[in-house]
């Protein structure tokens, strides 16, 4: 099967002007991911795992290298490292998801509307989107009487459940996961693994960083171990 | 059950920008307000413009609203009825185009509204300029626009002078969207509102953008507002664009020394 993502000699460094120097993150990384494949990124703290995810998502601008992403329906491929910002913005709305351990929500928006937002953005009618949102809030174990409340007031664990429900409500083709199981209770962790397994079975490719890789060991197909400023060893 | 097949594949843009300004410079006496600024606004996106006071961001927005003409530079709007450099239009033609295709919300409602006319009349005025004369249509469309802006219809005949700041901004939004503009320009739309009202007005704007696909350009010195609203952002300083990119990119991986200072100065 054709790869969904082909990363070619990707390099990232940060130029910090007020320090007057450049901090390297990783260099000449190459790997690929097929549809439905689950790739685990591992390595010691500070080795650049999250930085790599953010560079693939284009939150960070790579210094050099390519990230070839295969578009659906024979539209060819696009280099995420160089694509126009507006194209990246569109791909993020429809194709590429990013799941962090932190919820960022607009203030004074209810939990169910926060979760429904990606569906509404894609044109799903309000009632249907809200119903789907409630289904996922329930699945991740958010208490029913919190659904209409503002999530910015929730505990860290509850916020993370809302965050996961929103991030995974809409199937995308590539999902980047940055320690999504941190601060989750066992029920929510189980629900997350079940949802990821469903998505994987549906052909969604995933690249993830996990504090406790044991949580997702049944899903992992391959592991990439990052090492400080060296080329990764692909297991 | 929601599945991936229910959604269209994205149509990637290498598509035409909806609005494009190129090589725009403007000098007021000895002050260079804009220096060779180019900007592209793509259909359906929210473009944020940030920068300190005097950086030229509001001047740039007024150019997009065809209120001001630059000393040099072009502006085009990719619509069937417009062609060529819009800065070359007569004042009258620019006014008509603005009335029909461009909506604006100012920080100061006094600039955008007649404070002693009724709120519905303020919205209807926009429709009148565009040629609508039937009273019942004016009234109905004004009501629809106010409703979409989440303005309480029981107050639609109250003049803005009697309304709170948040409500005045909603009247401005209703006026700006009454004719379904191609682009909605927002100049510090929530500056001066208290934080809870600010959140509600931003939510209204976000909903309009999502449900109607309205293209927006939002100017603010409040980085939080830009972060919640925008897809892409341009950072301006002393009349020049120093950096532009996706909003998370500019906030988390700023490249320019000035942007790094700006972002790191945020509380």
TrEMBL record, chain A:
Coiled-coil spans in chain: none
One Pfam family matching this protein: ABC_tran
UniProt-listed InterPro entries: AAA+_ATPase, ABC_transporter-like_ATP-bd, ABC_transporter-like_CS, ABC_transpr_LolD-like, P-loop_NTPase
Superkingdom of this protein's organism: Bacteria
Keywords, in A-Z order: ATP-binding, Nucleotide-binding
PROSITE patterns cross-referenced by the UniProt entry: ABC_TRANSPORTER_1, ABC_TRANSPORTER_2
ABC transporter domain ranges (all copies): 5-232
Record-level Gene Ontology MF annotations: ATP binding
Gene3D superfamilies: P-loop containing nucleotide triphosphate hydrolases
Family according to the record: Belongs to the ABC transporter superfamily.
Protein name as annotated: ATP-binding cassette domain-containing protein
TrEMBL record, chain B:
UniProt KW keywords: ATP-binding, Nucleotide-binding
Source superkingdom: Bacteria
ABC transporter domain ranges (all copies): 19-263
One Gene Ontology MF term: ATP binding
Bilayer-crossing regions: none
A Pfam family that the UniProt record links to this protein: ABC_tran
Family of this protein: Belongs to the ABC transporter superfamily.
Annotated protein name in UniProt: ATP-binding cassette domain-containing protein
UniProt source species: Mesorhizobium retamae
Classification lineage: Bacteria, Pseudomonadati, Pseudomonadota, Alphaproteobacteria, Hyphomicrobiales
